[in-house]
Amino acid sequence: MLLHVDGLTVAFGGVTAVNGLSFDVHEGEVISVIGPNGAGKTSAFNCITGFYKPTAGRILFDDVDITGKRPALIAARGVARTFQNLRLFGELSVLDNVRAGMHVRIRQNAFDAILHTPRYRRSEQEATDEANRWLDFVGSRGNRAAEVRNLPYGEQRRVEIARALAREPKMLLLDEPAAGLNHGEKAALLDLLRRISDLGTAVVLIEHDMGLVMDVSERIVVLNYGKEIADGTPEQIRSDPAVIEAYLGSDDAEAQQEAERVAHSSDTGGFHDLPTPEEER
Protein backbone atom coordinates (compact mmCIF):
# COMPACT_ATOMS: atom_id res chain seq x y z
CA MET A 1 0.00 0.00 0.00
CA LEU A 2 1.41 3.35 -1.08
CA LEU A 3 -1.12 5.86 0.28
CA HIS A 4 -3.39 5.38 3.28
CA VAL A 5 -5.94 8.08 4.10
CA ASP A 6 -7.73 7.45 7.39
CA GLY A 7 -10.63 9.52 8.71
CA LEU A 8 -9.58 12.68 6.89
CA THR A 9 -11.63 15.70 7.96
CA VAL A 10 -11.23 19.30 6.80
CA ALA A 11 -13.31 22.11 8.27
CA PHE A 12 -13.30 25.82 7.51
CA GLY A 13 -15.10 27.64 10.28
CA GLY A 14 -18.53 26.05 10.42
CA VAL A 15 -18.22 24.34 7.04
CA THR A 16 -16.91 20.78 6.80
CA ALA A 17 -15.40 20.27 3.35
CA VAL A 18 -14.24 16.69 3.93
CA ASN A 19 -15.83 14.47 6.56
CA GLY A 20 -14.09 11.26 7.63
CA LEU A 21 -12.68 10.23 4.25
CA SER A 22 -10.74 6.95 4.15
CA PHE A 23 -9.20 5.22 1.14
CA ASP A 24 -6.01 3.50 0.00
CA VAL A 25 -3.89 3.69 -3.15
CA HIS A 26 -1.51 0.94 -4.23
CA GLU A 27 1.62 1.10 -6.38
CA GLY A 28 0.83 1.58 -10.05
CA GLU A 29 -2.91 1.85 -9.43
CA VAL A 30 -5.14 4.32 -11.25
CA ILE A 31 -8.03 5.60 -9.17
CA SER A 32 -10.43 8.50 -9.62
CA VAL A 33 -12.01 10.68 -6.96
CA ILE A 34 -15.33 11.96 -8.27
CA GLY A 35 -18.38 13.75 -6.96
CA PRO A 36 -20.75 16.60 -7.72
CA ASN A 37 -20.24 20.28 -6.98
CA GLY A 38 -18.98 20.91 -3.46
CA ALA A 39 -18.04 17.29 -2.79
CA GLY A 40 -14.64 18.10 -1.25
CA LYS A 41 -12.42 16.48 -3.86
CA THR A 42 -9.89 19.29 -4.23
CA SER A 43 -9.81 19.84 -0.46
CA ALA A 44 -8.79 16.20 -0.05
CA PHE A 45 -6.05 16.63 -2.67
CA ASN A 46 -4.85 19.76 -0.89
CA CYS A 47 -4.45 17.81 2.36
CA ILE A 48 -2.60 14.94 0.71
CA THR A 49 -0.14 17.35 -0.92
CA GLY A 50 0.30 19.59 2.14
CA PHE A 51 -1.52 22.71 0.97
CA TYR A 52 -4.18 22.26 3.69
CA LYS A 53 -3.73 20.95 7.22
CA PRO A 54 -6.45 18.45 8.12
CA THR A 55 -8.73 19.11 11.06
CA ALA A 56 -8.62 15.40 11.89
CA GLY A 57 -7.40 12.12 10.46
CA ARG A 58 -4.10 10.73 9.23
CA ILE A 59 -2.34 10.46 5.88
CA LEU A 60 0.40 7.86 5.45
CA PHE A 61 2.55 7.75 2.33
CA ASP A 62 4.96 4.87 1.85
CA ASP A 63 4.51 4.04 5.56
CA VAL A 64 5.48 7.58 6.64
CA ASP A 65 3.03 9.93 8.34
CA ILE A 66 2.82 13.05 6.13
CA THR A 67 -0.21 14.59 7.84
CA GLY A 68 0.17 18.36 7.91
CA LYS A 69 3.68 18.31 6.45
CA ARG A 70 4.86 21.08 4.13
CA PRO A 71 4.29 20.61 0.37
CA ALA A 72 8.04 20.56 -0.34
CA LEU A 73 8.63 17.72 2.14
CA ILE A 74 5.75 15.70 0.72
CA ALA A 75 6.99 16.28 -2.84
CA ALA A 76 10.46 15.13 -1.83
CA ARG A 77 8.97 11.84 -0.62
CA GLY A 78 7.57 11.12 -4.08
CA VAL A 79 4.23 12.90 -4.47
CA ALA A 80 3.70 15.11 -7.52
CA ARG A 81 0.64 17.08 -8.53
CA THR A 82 -0.96 19.12 -11.29
CA PHE A 83 -3.70 21.70 -10.82
CA GLN A 84 -6.96 22.41 -12.60
CA ASN A 85 -5.71 25.90 -13.39
CA LEU A 86 -2.34 25.60 -15.10
CA ARG A 87 0.60 26.69 -12.95
CA LEU A 88 3.36 26.94 -15.51
CA PHE A 89 6.00 29.65 -15.74
CA GLY A 90 4.62 31.47 -18.76
CA GLU A 91 7.75 33.40 -19.67
CA LEU A 92 10.04 30.37 -19.42
CA SER A 93 10.60 27.96 -22.27
CA VAL A 94 8.88 24.60 -22.50
CA LEU A 95 12.16 22.89 -21.66
CA ASP A 96 12.92 25.11 -18.67
CA ASN A 97 9.45 24.50 -17.24
CA VAL A 98 10.12 20.77 -17.19
CA ARG A 99 13.64 21.24 -15.85
CA ALA A 100 12.13 23.24 -12.99
CA GLY A 101 10.30 20.11 -11.89
CA MET A 102 13.59 18.38 -11.14
CA HIS A 103 14.68 20.70 -8.35
CA VAL A 104 13.50 18.27 -5.67
CA ARG A 105 15.86 15.59 -7.03
CA ILE A 106 18.88 17.44 -8.42
CA ARG A 107 21.38 18.80 -5.91
CA GLN A 108 23.76 21.41 -7.30
CA ASN A 109 26.60 23.12 -5.51
CA ALA A 110 26.39 26.94 -5.52
CA PHE A 111 30.13 27.12 -6.11
CA ASP A 112 29.82 24.94 -9.22
CA ALA A 113 26.92 27.03 -10.52
CA ILE A 114 28.77 30.34 -10.11
CA LEU A 115 31.93 29.08 -11.81
CA HIS A 116 30.18 26.87 -14.37
CA THR A 117 32.44 23.98 -13.52
CA PRO A 118 32.48 20.80 -15.64
CA ARG A 119 30.39 19.08 -12.97
CA TYR A 120 27.76 21.84 -13.21
CA ARG A 121 27.68 21.71 -17.02
CA ARG A 122 27.36 17.94 -16.94
CA SER A 123 24.48 18.18 -14.47
CA GLU A 124 22.72 20.78 -16.63
CA GLN A 125 23.07 18.63 -19.75
CA GLU A 126 21.70 15.60 -17.93
CA ALA A 127 18.72 17.67 -16.77
CA THR A 128 18.09 18.87 -20.32
CA ASP A 129 18.28 15.34 -21.72
CA GLU A 130 15.88 14.06 -19.09
CA ALA A 131 13.43 16.92 -19.66
CA ASN A 132 13.40 16.07 -23.36
CA ARG A 133 12.70 12.43 -22.57
CA TRP A 134 9.68 13.34 -20.46
CA LEU A 135 8.39 15.71 -23.12
CA ASP A 136 8.69 12.88 -25.63
CA PHE A 137 6.87 10.58 -23.20
CA VAL A 138 3.83 12.87 -22.87
CA GLY A 139 3.68 13.43 -26.62
CA SER A 140 4.88 17.03 -26.77
CA ARG A 141 5.81 17.90 -30.35
CA GLY A 142 6.13 21.70 -30.25
CA ASN A 143 9.12 24.03 -30.14
CA ARG A 144 10.72 23.39 -26.77
CA ALA A 145 12.60 26.68 -26.83
CA ALA A 146 9.32 28.61 -27.14
CA GLU A 147 7.75 30.43 -24.20
CA VAL A 148 5.19 28.07 -22.75
CA ARG A 149 2.48 30.76 -22.62
CA ASN A 150 2.41 30.80 -26.43
CA LEU A 151 1.45 27.12 -26.71
CA PRO A 152 -2.10 25.85 -27.28
CA TYR A 153 -3.93 24.89 -24.10
CA GLY A 154 -3.71 21.14 -24.70
CA GLU A 155 0.03 21.36 -25.26
CA GLN A 156 0.43 23.31 -22.02
CA ARG A 157 -1.35 20.47 -20.23
CA ARG A 158 1.22 18.04 -21.59
CA VAL A 159 4.05 20.26 -20.39
CA GLU A 160 2.57 20.43 -16.90
CA ILE A 161 2.29 16.65 -16.71
CA ALA A 162 5.85 16.28 -18.03
CA ARG A 163 7.09 18.63 -15.32
CA ALA A 164 5.34 16.56 -12.64
CA LEU A 165 6.77 13.33 -14.05
CA ALA A 166 10.27 14.82 -14.13
CA ARG A 167 10.22 14.57 -10.35
CA GLU A 168 10.02 10.78 -10.79
CA PRO A 169 7.13 10.53 -8.33
CA LYS A 170 5.77 7.37 -6.80
CA MET A 171 2.30 8.90 -6.97
CA LEU A 172 0.88 11.52 -9.34
CA LEU A 173 -2.25 13.51 -8.48
CA LEU A 174 -4.04 15.14 -11.40
CA ASP A 175 -6.78 17.72 -10.85
CA GLU A 176 -9.15 17.68 -13.85
CA PRO A 177 -6.49 16.91 -16.48
CA ALA A 178 -9.11 16.60 -19.25
CA ALA A 179 -10.64 20.05 -18.64
CA GLY A 180 -10.55 22.11 -21.83
CA LEU A 181 -9.28 19.28 -24.02
CA ASN A 182 -10.88 18.22 -27.29
CA HIS A 183 -11.87 14.65 -28.13
CA GLY A 184 -8.52 13.74 -29.69
CA GLU A 185 -6.57 15.23 -26.80
CA LYS A 186 -8.68 13.28 -24.31
CA ALA A 187 -7.94 10.05 -26.17
CA ALA A 188 -4.22 10.85 -26.00
CA LEU A 189 -4.57 11.61 -22.27
CA LEU A 190 -6.23 8.24 -21.68
CA ASP A 191 -3.29 6.49 -23.32
CA LEU A 192 -0.81 8.62 -21.35
CA LEU A 193 -2.43 7.77 -18.01
CA ARG A 194 -2.14 4.08 -18.77
CA ARG A 195 1.52 4.43 -19.72
CA ILE A 196 2.23 6.34 -16.51
CA SER A 197 0.66 3.48 -14.56
CA ASP A 198 2.81 1.01 -16.52
CA LEU A 199 5.87 2.81 -15.11
CA GLY A 200 4.72 1.75 -11.64
CA THR A 201 3.55 5.25 -10.73
CA ALA A 202 0.20 5.43 -8.95
CA VAL A 203 -2.24 7.89 -10.52
CA VAL A 204 -5.04 9.59 -8.59
CA LEU A 205 -7.24 11.94 -10.55
CA ILE A 206 -10.15 14.28 -10.02
CA GLU A 207 -12.14 14.33 -13.22
CA HIS A 208 -15.59 15.36 -14.46
CA ASP A 209 -15.39 13.48 -17.77
CA MET A 210 -17.07 10.24 -16.74
CA GLY A 211 -16.21 8.52 -20.01
CA LEU A 212 -12.52 8.98 -19.24
CA VAL A 213 -13.00 8.03 -15.59
CA MET A 214 -14.79 4.78 -16.43
CA ASP A 215 -12.24 3.83 -19.09
CA VAL A 216 -9.03 4.43 -17.14
CA SER A 217 -9.86 3.80 -13.47
CA GLU A 218 -9.25 0.56 -11.64
CA ARG A 219 -11.16 1.97 -8.68
CA ILE A 220 -13.36 5.00 -8.10
CA VAL A 221 -13.97 6.85 -4.82
CA VAL A 222 -17.14 8.94 -4.77
CA LEU A 223 -17.64 11.93 -2.47
CA ASN A 224 -20.81 13.87 -1.77
CA TYR A 225 -20.91 16.85 0.61
CA GLY A 226 -17.54 15.82 2.00
CA LYS A 227 -18.49 12.22 2.77
CA GLU A 228 -17.43 9.09 0.96
CA ILE A 229 -20.53 7.37 -0.42
CA ALA A 230 -18.90 4.68 -2.56
CA ASP A 231 -15.57 3.01 -3.31
CA GLY A 232 -15.44 0.35 -5.99
CA THR A 233 -14.75 -0.69 -9.54
CA PRO A 234 -16.23 1.30 -12.45
CA GLU A 235 -18.87 -1.40 -12.89
CA GLN A 236 -19.89 -1.16 -9.24
CA ILE A 237 -19.95 2.64 -9.26
CA ARG A 238 -21.93 2.90 -12.51
CA SER A 239 -24.89 1.07 -10.97
CA ASP A 240 -24.65 2.32 -7.38
CA PRO A 241 -27.96 4.01 -6.43
CA ALA A 242 -26.28 6.39 -3.98
CA VAL A 243 -23.91 7.59 -6.68
CA ILE A 244 -26.71 8.06 -9.21
CA GLU A 245 -28.75 10.03 -6.70
CA ALA A 246 -25.77 12.21 -5.76
CA TYR A 247 -25.22 13.16 -9.40
CA LEU A 248 -28.84 13.66 -10.41
CA GLY A 249 -30.34 14.73 -7.10
CA SER A 250 -33.22 12.32 -7.67
CA ASP A 251 -35.97 12.29 -5.08
CA ASP A 252 -38.65 10.23 -6.76
CA ALA A 253 -38.97 6.84 -8.45
CA GLU A 254 -39.26 8.22 -11.98
CA ALA A 255 -36.08 10.26 -11.65
CA GLN A 256 -34.30 7.26 -10.16
CA GLN A 257 -35.33 5.09 -13.11
CA GLU A 258 -34.03 7.71 -15.53
CA ALA A 259 -30.74 7.84 -13.65
CA GLU A 260 -30.44 4.06 -13.87
CA ARG A 261 -31.13 4.19 -17.62
CA VAL A 262 -28.39 6.76 -18.17
CA ALA A 263 -25.94 4.94 -15.92
CA HIS A 264 -26.30 1.70 -17.86
CA SER A 265 -26.38 3.23 -21.34
CA SER A 266 -23.73 1.66 -23.58
CA ASP A 267 -23.67 4.82 -25.69
CA THR A 268 -22.78 7.21 -22.90
CA GLY A 269 -20.46 4.95 -20.91
CA GLY A 270 -22.15 5.90 -17.66
CA PHE A 271 -22.50 9.54 -16.65
CA HIS A 272 -20.54 10.84 -19.65
CA ASP A 273 -23.28 13.18 -20.89
CA LEU A 274 -24.45 14.50 -17.52
CA PRO A 275 -23.79 18.16 -16.74
CA THR A 276 -20.98 18.51 -14.20
CA PRO A 277 -20.57 21.98 -12.69
CA GLU A 278 -17.13 23.23 -11.71
CA GLU A 279 -16.14 22.23 -8.19
CA GLU A 280 -15.83 25.08 -5.73
CA ARG A 281 -12.38 25.91 -4.53
UniProtKB/TrEMBL annotation:
GO terms for biological process: D-alanine transmembrane transport; L-alanine transport; L-isoleucine import across plasma membrane; L-valine import across plasma membrane. InterPro entries: AAA+_ATPase, ABC_AA/LPS_Transport, ABC_transporter-like_ATP-bd, BCA_ABC_TP_C, P-loop_NTPase. Keywords: ATP-binding, Nucleotide-binding, Transport. Residues 252-281 are annotated as: Disordered. CDD domains: ABC_Mj1267_LivG_branched. GO terms for cellular component: plasma membrane. This is ABC transporter. The lineage of its organism: Bacteria, Bacillati, Actinomycetota, Actinomycetes, Micrococcales.
